[in-house]
């Protein structure tokens, strides 16, 4: 009874905005910040119930990632640090759109009965809440706390301003009984990075890597955190310069950031031809995406993009090298004792040249629909699952079993120099598993792994970029009244509805050598997206345009 009146009274303070219907999409709820207070409050309730159900720590993140600064959003991290379990999404939608406090109470009653959640206050569970640097974040975070604390037994812990992957990491660490503060996160990243650097084979002194990295922080939270991390690293032989930290007056994601750089393929603000020859990287607004790029030598705006597929390929090469050391004669008999299944997960957006490259390396490549939750789920089925979207979101997952096996091969976490080649390879893989975020894609940890890998290989960004040459591609979007009219299958590569469209796409695609084209409904906007690839830019453009006309 106390619970019912608490929920009714608090909910009445957060009426849903009239005429707005929101849905928990691939990235949670996202909208103009002005309409989000009630939604965020209600997601607070959802996170509290999820915590009680799972008897674990849950996370709630307030961010709209790469979207414009006036937008905001909210998403939930599950106990393992991954996205909210998909079977809770319909409940999230219903809760967010419940018109009256009584409707909301009814939904909560239904869910608690269904899932067997006792709201008797006998247990106390924590929900970690954090936000990015958006000005609207502070008051939305207050709304989230009120939502959480309107459920008896749930306690909100305000973690302040964090990157999205930092929050997911903390949730995971807490539930694993590990140290889980922000400092622990930074400490784990820097110690495992140093371990990888210490294990670089000698003889790479004359490498081409280049000792400077310039990072575009998207005027968001990532730049700030990177400055702290950089101090902890006390790097020798590597200088990281951070630009677009948000402190120089630039606007979040405006003409900057990983999404802008990847979609527009142009130089972000604050960069120019003076940076030619230097490795450049770009984070997005909440630092869960990372791309690298090379600026043009002279005037002009077009960059050479080194995207998520290239990052995935770089990591695959490095990991494959370590595995083959482990498999060598006299080693730990990797293939006999334990096969180690490795897989690379991509979406239909992956450049066809990257897929060919990975397959030629002898790796298993599988496809899922767009959206981190799908890639992550698939990657978790391997001993080593490497997943990246072309847009730069991704990570590498290691199975518990494989990590245990590695530890028996080398129980010293970072035994430099002394060990055998096999032990060093095992140490490197263990360090990678600690450096790269096991919860979700993380631009900061991914960047440190790229840096360590380039140093290990002795490769410049150009050498890395030349692993394969991207096929020219074009992305378009077509505004439609109802995007759900388009239904796809086979990891979004085939249209099943409306009838006839796929046949028409096939006819267009067949006109171009190396042509490949697909359409899919966006999960975040009211548009149909078109992607086309062909052997020349002009042909990719023509293919995309002709297919866009079919959709219109
Ligand atoms: C979201 C997804 C991202 C995906 C993008 C596609 C997460 C955390 N983020 O940003 O993975 O690439 O949506 O957007 O899952 P679209 O459906 O509008 O093309
Ligand atoms: Zn993001």
UniProtKB/TrEMBL annotation:
Residues 180-291, 307-459 form the Phosphoacetylglucosamine mutase AMG1 domain. Keywords: Isomerase, Magnesium, Metal-binding, Phosphoprotein. Signal peptide: none annotated. The keyword Lyase does not apply. GO terms for molecular function: metal ion binding; phosphoacetylglucosamine mutase activity. Binds 1 Mg(2+) ion per subunit. It catalyses: N-acetyl-alpha-D-glucosamine 1-phosphate = N-acetyl-D-glucosamine 6-phosphate. Substrate binds at residues 389-391, 520-524, 529. GO terms for biological process: carbohydrate metabolic process; UDP-N-acetylglucosamine biosynthetic process. Residues 55-87 form the Alpha-D-phosphohexomutase alpha/beta/alpha domain. The active site is at 65 (phosphoserine intermediate). Its EC number is 5.4.2.3. Residues 477-549 form the Alpha-D-phosphohexomutase C-terminal domain. Pathway: Nucleotide-sugar biosynthesis; UDP-N-acetyl-alpha-D-glucosamine biosynthesis; N-acetyl-alpha-D-glucosamine 1-phosphate from alpha-D-glucosamine 6-phosphate (route I): step 2/2. Its cofactor is Mg(2+). Mg(2+) binds at residues 65, 284, 286, 288. It comes from the Eukaryota. Interconverts GlcNAc-6-P and GlcNAc-1-P. Belongs to the phosphohexose mutase family. PANTHER family: PHOSPHOACETYLGLUCOSAMINE MUTASE. This is Phosphoacetylglucosamine mutase. It comes from Ziziphus jujuba (Chinese jujube).
């Amino acid at each position: 009874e106390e619970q019912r009146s608490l929920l009714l009274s608090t909910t009445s303070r957060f009426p849903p905005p009239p005429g707005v219907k929101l849905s928990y999409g691939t990235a949670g709820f996202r909208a103009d910040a002005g309409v989000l207070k009630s939604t965020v409050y209600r997601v607070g309730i959802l996170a509290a119930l999820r915590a009680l159900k799972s008897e674990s720590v849950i996370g709630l993140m307030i961010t709209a990632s790469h979207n414009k600064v006036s937008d905001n959003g909210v998403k939930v991290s599950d106990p393992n640090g991954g996205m909210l379990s998909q079977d809770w999404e319909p409940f999230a939608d219903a809760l967010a759109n419940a018109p009256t406090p009584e409707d909301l109470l009814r939904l909560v009653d239904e869910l608690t009965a269904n899932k067997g959640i006792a709201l008797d206050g006998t247990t106390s569970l924590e929900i970690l809440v954090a936000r990015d640097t958006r000005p609207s974040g502070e008051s939305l975070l207050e709304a989230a706390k009120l939502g959480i604390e309107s459920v008896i037994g749930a306690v909100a812990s305000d973690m302040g301003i964090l990157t999205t992957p930092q929050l997911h990491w903390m949730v995971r660490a807490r539930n694993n009984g590990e140290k889980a503060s922000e400092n622990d996160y930074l400490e784990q990243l820097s110690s495992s990075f140093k371990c990888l650097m210490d294990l670089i084979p000698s003889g790479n002194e004359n490498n081409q890597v280049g000792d400077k990295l310039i990072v575009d922080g998207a005027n968001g939270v990532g730049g700030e955190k990177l400055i702290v991390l950089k101090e902890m690293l006390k790097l020798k032989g590597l200088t990281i310069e951070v630009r677009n930290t948000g402190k120089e007056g630039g606007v979040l994601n405006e003409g900057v950031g990983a999404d802008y750089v990847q979609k527009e393929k142009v130089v972000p603000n604050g960069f120019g031809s003076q940076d030619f020859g230097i490795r450049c990287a770009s984070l997005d607004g909440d630092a869960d995406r990372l791309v690298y790029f090379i600026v043009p030598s002279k005037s002009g705006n077009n960059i050479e993009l080194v995207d998520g597929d290239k990052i995935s390929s770089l990591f695959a090469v490095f990991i494959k090298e370590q595995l083959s050391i482990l498999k060598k004669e006299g080693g730990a008999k990797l293939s006999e004792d334990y096969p180690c299944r490795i897989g690379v997960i991509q979406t239909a957006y992956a450049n066809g040249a990257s897929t060919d490259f990975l397959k030629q390396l002898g790796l298993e490549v599988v496809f899922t629909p767009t959206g981190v939750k799908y890639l992550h789920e698939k990657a978790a089925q391997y001993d080593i699952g490497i997943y990246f979207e072309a847009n730069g979101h991704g990570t590498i997952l290691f199975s518990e079993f494989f990590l245990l096996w590695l530890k028996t091969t080398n129980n010293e976490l970072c035994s430099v120099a002394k060990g055998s080649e096999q032990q060093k390879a095992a140490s490197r893989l263990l360090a990678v598993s600690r450096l790269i975020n096991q919860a979700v894609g993380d631009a900061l940890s991914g960047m440190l792994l790229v840096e360590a890998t380039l140093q290990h290989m002795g490769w410049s960004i150009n050498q890395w970029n030349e692993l394969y040459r991207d096929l020219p591609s074009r992305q378009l979007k077509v505004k439609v009244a109802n995007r759900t009219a388009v239904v796809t299958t086979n990891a979004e590569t085939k249209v099943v509805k409306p009838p006839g469209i796929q046949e028409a796409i096939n006819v267009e695609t067949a006109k171009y050598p190396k042509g490949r084209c697909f359409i899919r409904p966006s999960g975040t906007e009211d548009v149909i997206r078109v992607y086309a690839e062909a052997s020349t830019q002009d042909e990719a453009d023509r293919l995309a345009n002709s297919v866009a006309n079919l959709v219109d």
